[in-house]
Amino acid sequence: MNIEMPPFLKWAGGKRWLTSLHTEQFPVAFNRYFEPFLGSGAVFFALRPDAATLSDLNLDLVDTYKGIRDEWRAVEKLLHEYHRKHSKEHYLKVRQSKPRVLARRAARFIYLNRTCWNALYRVNLNGQFNVPMGTKTNVILDVDDFKELSSILQSTDILHQDFEAVIDRAQKGDFIFADPPYTVKHNFNGFVKYNEKIFRWDDQVRLSKCLIKAKNRGCLVLVTNANHPSIYELYENDFDLTPLKRNSVIAASSENRGVYEELIIKNYSLAPIHRPRNKHSDVSIQS
């Protein structure tokens, strides 16, 4: 395993807590790495695999990774420019822009991610980013190393595809890390907004079937999901399930932040199986 590289983006539901506190959850060795719900790529950057296929339905996010991989110098130069110009007026100007050049699309995404409210990604019905400016003012960070990020991403395929098409590429000995939107099956939550798409309960079912097929092909599979009985029932016959606690930092005020359990689902260990105690308990859902 290579030295960990911190993600260059902040992302709701990011997995830095998992990579920093629970390294034992990851396989020691594997062939190619697959991540169909990319987000900040915390697990990818922690493992730094020799070869990877990364994918997401967020086209702006996918273009940002491609921009870092293929045009990191131009992206870095633009971010320094945005750092000098940062203001509410400049933020709104960049937010409203629709650049065609790959490097500018990547720089726009990173700038908005670092200066918007709580690093939230949200779009309106027209697919336009509409998060207000936050309190952060640093566009360039001390940990930034875009040259190294580009080097890490050279051995990756970066795709804008549905998760099933990506997972179906994985073969025996490959490692799949799946961190989907946390949709669960109960009366008050039928779906979660996932970019401009809707990630429905049917998608959770489809994902589980796809991952079971991958397991049967000999793939190593690790899934993070809501610790909820409906999720448990999708995977209990084919995978080991273990809840892990994590801190939530998404809420606007510290009073509304707390400790939650997420379900770790995998097929390459003999971890004990734990079932949620209350089948009718509600959970906090995040995308």
Would you tell me the overall average pLDDT?
87
Spell the H/E element sequence.
HEHEHHHHEHEEEHEHEE
The total count of strands amounts to 9
Strand residues, percent: 15-25%
Question: Helicity, in percent?
Answer: 25-40%
Radius of gyration, in angstroms, nearest whole number: 19 Å
The helix tally amounts to 9
What kind of sheet is the major sheet?
A: 7 strands, mixed
Explain this structure to me?
This protein is an alpha/beta fold. It has helices at residues 16-21, 42-47, 59-85, 88-96, 102-115, 146-153, 163-167, 201-216, 229-235; strands at residues 33-35, 52-55, 156-159, 175-178, 191-194, 197-200, 220-226, 240-247, 259-266. The strands form 2 sheets. The protein has a 7-stranded mixed β-sheet, with helices on both faces. Strands 5-6 form a two-stranded antiparallel sheet. The chain is globular. The two termini are 29 Å apart.
Blueprint (SSEs and pairs):
Blueprint: H1 16-21, E1 33-35, H2 42-47, E2 52-55, H3 59-85, H4 88-96, H5 102-115, H6 146-153, E3 156-159, H7 163-167, E4 175-178, E5 191-194, E6 197-200, H8 201-216, E7 220-226, H9 229-235, E8 240-247, E9 259-266
Parallel strand pairs: 1-2, 1-4, 2-3, 4-7
Antiparallel strand pairs: 5-6, 7-9, 8-9
Helix pairs in contact: 3-5, 3-6
